[in-house]
């Protein structure tokens, strides 16, 4: 007799990839407009990528508003948006940039960050694997900083309407009631400190684009500055802190000049700049003092506390190359760079954007 027919295999739980049309297969590999329509694909996107990395306990996708509890103190809130090309670069990516940038704004204001919200504007066609890596990066940076992402939203933009991914964040933190940091506290004779070399982020992003036929392995300085700001806050002579992001160190100096009415004098020999940054700037005509930093702190402190604060910073991993770079004095409102040869150069206020989409 003929052999019995083989048993019929059970139907697969998920159709094999080979049975999907190319269009259907692409839906699972890249972002489509359907991921933003509020239906199944959007629910799976939030569950499988955002909630999986950021944690169901802290990112409750089943409610429209998150409950938060803050410790006693002065409550601070900040908000920011992030766009960078490429989305991943040596030393970081747009995910770490968003977490560090928001938390650093709270930290230099004297606060300890506690909570973040995250809005993701995703361009149609973005690879799902890339989005997954970026959200994982957000989760790692948040965990390292000690901040929880408690609410968020996703939107999908039509192809050509975005740079792959835009992020918008809001941060909430708490500062001690007795800590008063303001440019209004600055006095003549105060010293200006920077926690490390300037310009790394701007040049690292530019090299990652391989523009002008240039490549390099320079790392962005994108980092959490909370250990630096907490160390500085212990000094009674601390007047003010700022993170020199867009516009760099020179732009912070112009803000100080405008608010205080004092003259800012920087010493070129004392400003730390890495050799690769100097080399690229010399070749392309950039000035590192105007380039964005994403893991540095500028502090203004009274003169008799400057050396102690500098030593405190240099003892920390993020402040080993910290330096005292200048002072504020009575005089005509200008930002002056005292050059290596002893001459003086006026640093004008930034007008053009030296490098697009770097933060």
Report the sheet-strand fraction.
15-25%
Structural class: alpha+beta
In the predicted model, the low-confidence regions spanning at least 5 consecutive residues are 9-27
Biggest sheet, in brief? 7 strands, mixed
The level of helicity is 25-40%
Q: What would you call the quaternary organization?
A: single chain
Q: How many β-strand runs? A: 13
Order of helices and strands: HHEEEHEHEEEHHEHEHEHEEE
Quote the distance from N terminus to C terminus.
Answer: 76 Å
Can you put this structure into words, describing what you see?
The structure is a single chain. Helix 2 runs parallel beside helix 4. About 5% of the residues have low confidence. It is built from nine helices and 13 strands. The chain is α+β, with helices and mostly antiparallel strands. 43% of the residues are buried. The protein has a seven-stranded mixed beta sheet with strand order 8-10-7-11-9-12-13. The chain has a four-stranded mixed beta sheet with strand order 1-6-4-5, covered by helices on one side. Strands 2-3 form a two-stranded antiparallel sheet. The longest helix has 18 residues.
């Amino acid at each position: 007799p003929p052999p019995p027919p083989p048993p019929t295999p059970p139907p697969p739980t998920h159709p094999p990839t080979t049975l999907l049309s190319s269009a259907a297969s692409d839906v699972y590999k890249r972002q489509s407009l359907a991921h933003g329509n509020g239906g199944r694909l959007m629910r799976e996107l939030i569950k499988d990528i955002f909630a999986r990395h950021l944690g169901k306990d802290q990112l409750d996708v089943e409610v429209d508003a998150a409950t938060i509890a803050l410790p006693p103190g002065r409550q601070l809130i900040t908000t920011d948006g992030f766009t960078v090309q490429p989305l991943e670069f040596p030393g970081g990516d747009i995910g770490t940039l968003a977490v560090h940038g928001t938390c650093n704004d709270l930290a230099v204001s004297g606060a300890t960050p506690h909570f973040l919200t995250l809005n993701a504007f995703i361009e149609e066609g973005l690879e799902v694997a890339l989005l997954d890596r970026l959200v994982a990066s957000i989760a790692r940076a948040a965990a390292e900083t000690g901040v929880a992402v408690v609410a968020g939203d996703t939107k999908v933009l039509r192809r050509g309407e975005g740079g792959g991914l835009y992020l918008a964040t809001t941060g909430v933190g708490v500062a001690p009631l007795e800590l008063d940091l303001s440019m209004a506290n600055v006095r003549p004779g105060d010293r200006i400190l920077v926690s490390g070399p300037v310009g790394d982020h701007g040049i690292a992003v530019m090299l990652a684009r391989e523009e002008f036929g240039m490549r390099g392995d320079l790392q962005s300085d994108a980092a959490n500055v909370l250990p630096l700001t907490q160390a500085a806050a212990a000094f009674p002579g601390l007047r003010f802190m700022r993170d020199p992001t867009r516009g760099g160190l020179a732009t912070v100096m112009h803000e100080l000049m405008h608010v205080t009415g004092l003259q800012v004098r920087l010493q070129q020999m004392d400003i730390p700049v890495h050799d690769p940054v100097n080399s690229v700037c010399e070749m392309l005509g950039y000035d590192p003092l105007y380039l964005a930093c994403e893991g540095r702190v500028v502090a203004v402190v009274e003169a008799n506390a400057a050396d102690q604060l500098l030593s405190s910073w240099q003892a920390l991993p993020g402040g080993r190359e910290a330096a005292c770079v200048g002072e504020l004095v009575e005089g005509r409102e200008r930002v002056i760079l005292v050059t290596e040869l002893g001459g003086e150069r006026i640093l004008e206020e930034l007008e053009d954007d030296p490098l697009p989409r770097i933060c």
